[in-house]
Write the structure tokens for this entry.
Amino acid sequence: MYSAFNFQLSNKKKINPVACTMEAKLCPDGSAVGRSGPKCEFVECPSRVVQPIEENTAVLNQKILNEGIYITPLQVVSDSRCGAGMQCFWAGELIIKVRLEKETVMKEVDLKERGTVVFEGNNITFSCVVPEDKTNPITPFENYKFVFKVVPIGSKGVISGKVTLGPTCPVERIPPDPNCAPRGYATSISVIENFGTQIVKTIIQSDAGGAFSVTLSPGTYILQAHGGNVLPRCPDVSVEVKNGQTTTADISCDTGIR
């Protein structure tokens, strides 16, 4: 019996404890897992699904859904923009790597700020970034906010309106005098993207009665009617263009008559 017991002990395998390294793997949902088990393999990432957010703004590695397109800014490729409060000969540029997805189609592209790429029948535009320029001290890339615009190719909307001048008489009269009513103003109008200073339409013109109309892709624009060196003064007007719709935007210019 003694010899049998010794025989059983001699055939038992010696088990040595395994010490895994303290490395961590980042999971898609932002959590981290470590190594475990006899082979020190990474633990599986959580299986929970994070629903993308329906919006147009994202930070790095945040997936958003915009007009049926999943957009994920992956990394800042380069940022040569001028620092806040600095005078630069060149404004510089920001380039990011973006992942675009729709159903089973996936594409990764480098996009400049205000640049556009075609993906699955849509124009994907990297509209702007916040902060607009480099701060001092430098803002970490993880704190950047990226704004995107998705526009189906071929979709258009119309802005129509009238540019008027007023007042046209020095004294307001009761009842109002029809001869003192605001009158149409023939002038040129710049159409500018709301996210920058890029003129997206060569100057358009209002007619003798002040009426104008322009066809544009959906988005937000600023209309700048050109007044005189001093007067009249014409305010900027912000207007949103929607697919298949006509939006009215009137511009009232101040003559300075009082």
